Structures are given as C-alpha cells and as structure tokens.
Amino acid sequence: MNENGTKHSFVLQPLVGFCDLMILLSCALLFQLSTEEYTHFVPFLVFSWIITTFVIGFYKVYRFTPLVKILALLFKQTFLLTICTFTFFGIYNEIDVVTLAVLEYAFLSMGFIALLKIVVFNLRKKYRKQFGRDTIRVIILGENAKTEQLKNFFSYNPAYGFQFIAHFDLRGGKTTIDDITAFVIEHKIHQVYCSVAELKNKEIKALINFADNNLVTLKFLPDNKDIFTKKMDFQYYGITPILALRTIPIDTPVNLFLKRALDIFFASLVVLGILSWLTPILAIIIPTTSKGPLFFKQKRNGIDGKEFYCYKFRSMTINTEANDQQAGKNDMRTTKLGKFLRRTSIDEFPQFYNVLLGDMSVVGPRPHMISHTNSFKNQVDKFMVRHLVKPGITGLAQVSGYRGGIETKLDIKNRVRFDIFYVENWSILMDLRIIAKTFFQVIYGDKKAY
C-alpha cells in the first residue's frame, strides 16, 4: 500500500506535468522569438522547470494536502519561473524582450497551470466522494483528543478517500494487539493509525513487526516524547500531526514514472533486439532436447503479494516438483541445453515480457514461488516488506552475492536484508548500477548460476 495514496496517480501526475510543460512552451510563443532563439529557450525552460519543481516538491500533492498548501506551491513556483525566465534573457541579452513581457508570460502560464492543478485536484476529490472509489480502509488505535480529531477528519472529509472502519480503545486491557491484528487481516485494513501515548514499547514493536510482515501501513499520532530514532515522514491531516513509519522513495508519481520509463526502455531493447530472433530459434531447439513447451510459467508473488505468472525459457524436463523445489547444483531435472541457458541467464529473458506487461520491473527483489513465500513469511522477519515494490529480473541481493538457490537460512535472511535496503533507499542511479553489475555478471559468469 502506498502510504501517500498516490499509487493511482502513476499516470495522472506525469500527464499533468507534461501538460504544464506544454502550457509553458505554448505561452512562450508570445515572446515572438526566432526559431533559433526558441530552440535555445525550450531546453533551458524544461530543465529549469524540472529542477525547481523537484526542489520545492511542486508535484507532491496527496489526497490529504490542503488547498492552501497547493496555493503556496503555486506562488513559489511562479516566483521561481519568473527568476528563471529573467535569467535566460539576461544570459541572451541580445534578445530584445521587455520586463513587462516576462512578467506577463510568467503570470499567464502559471495562471493556466494553477487552473489545471486545482481542477484536477477537485475532480479527484469529487470522484472519491461520489463514487466511493480510490479509498483507503483505516482504523484508529487509542482514545484521546488527538484520535478524536483524526476520526472527525476521516468522517467529515469523504473526498479525501479515507474509509474509517473502526476505533479501538487500548485502555483497560479489553482489547489486545492480537485482537487488532486479527481484525486488520479479517477486514482487509490498509492503514493503522496509533496514538503513541497509549502504546507500550512492546506493543509498538509488535505492531511494527505485524505491519512489515503483512504489507499494512502503520502511522503514529505523536505524543510529546521523542521516542523514535528512525527518519520519519511528518504530515498533517487537517490540524492533526501524523508520523509515517516507513517512507518509500519510489512511492511518488515522478519516481513511479521514471521507474516505469526505465523498465519500458530496457525491456523494449531486449524484446526487439534479442528476443525477436532468439525466441524462434529456441522454439525449434528446446522441444528437441526434451518434450514440452518453449516457455515455463510459474505463479509467483509480486507487488502487494499479488500472484502473477512469471515466464522463463524452459530449462528442465517436465516434472511435478517444479512449483515446490528450486533448481540445485547438478540438478537431474535440468537438460543439457538448460544448463547453458541457466548459466548464461538466457532462461530469464522472457521475464522482459513480464516487465512490459507491468507485473515486474527490470530491477527489484526477485519474486519467489508461492510455496516459498508462504514458508519464508513465517520464518524470516519482515520478509513481506520486499513486496512493497514490483519484483525484478535482477536485484541488489543478486549482484551482492545472493543469487540462485537458497541453501541455508542465512541466505534468505541476507537476501531479505538487501531487498529491504533497496526498497527503502531506491533511486534511478541505484537501478542503473545494478543493471550494469548484472550485465558484467552475465558476461563473466556467476558461480551461483545453475
């Protein structure tokens, strides 16, 4: 679950950003620049817009963001756009543009952008209120003035899309943490809001472990004590302060867009440049080495634990243990051609189709077969945290020495440790580094590829 409630805006927010740029470029025609001057102005404008909007968080508008904050962002961005435009014409002082023209451009273009931003924001609120869609199911733990404020916020603001389900009083021992966790699972709760003042450290730890292992977002209503050492995301719902326990870098519209763009780029390269000719060749060779289909498909767990079919070139003979037993060294089920495919990682190439379908990413935690997920989530603490992002063809754990079969419990623990680090510290640069390391592993070989 995306704690900011922005997962649905993966396409919408980048589309709004694109429209903003189109407005800026269209209004720039009012300067009546020559073709050469305009071609200089466009990249400068686009670059400065991307940098300034990123710095002030112009597109970080969530379901609980108040209108006054949006107006403040618009005011800041208008000021920055004006400064950037003046800077350009200061550098290219041979272009004859008067000060009034720059001000008219900045205010006209930002006026259209403000109109678009506010209209989209209000249409999304009406969509949630009238159709009851795009909702987040929430419960509140604790009975005090702050929890009552939050309850009223959820109840009186249906346009924000929070579906208030229940309110638990933790005093008196009538309700236990086990009761709450059972309720969360039974009623498919997405977010749990806890009053720190009414929770013991032991109870907080139990809730954190439960949330991590069940993909539930945990947020806190803080008291006056500085009891947390983690970096947390501090937010306001109306006038109620909220602490978000785990912030995920990829869970912003801009980062989701960049991640998806990178996936489509690399997947398209592989599908068009390699699979277009490799697939027909293997379609002839693989059935001659052992009877069966070209592709092997297996159900695995993806983002939010959802199941999907993961594709590979078949490297084994047809067997009944495929969905329960991982391939091991000198595995008798692996064909001679299959050994080559697995050693060179060619068997994994059909997963680029999974990337184009949106089930997987090029980089991310490797997906496990269903039986292993069901086993590991009960054995390895915080195992389910790795399902907060899309699974990958390669990942940080794989390029850090934890590729292939899981031989000891330490292997899966270390793999999960690297996966959680990736989830909490993701960046485009990290993805590019992992892709580069994977490429060299494929070229030079990996002793754990069997």
Automatic annotation (TrEMBL):
It comes from the Bacteria. GO terms for molecular function: phosphotransferase activity, for other substituted phosphate groups. Pfam families: Bac_transf, CoA_binding_3. It comes from Leeuwenhoekiella blandensis (strain CECT 7118 / CCUG 51940 / KCTC 22103 / MED217). This is Glycosyltransferase. Its main location: membrane. Belongs to the bacterial sugar transferase family. It is a multi-pass membrane protein. The keyword Membrane applies. NCBIfam families: EPS_sugtrans (TIGR03025). The lineage of its organism: Bacteria, Pseudomonadati, Bacteroidota, Flavobacteriia, Flavobacteriales.
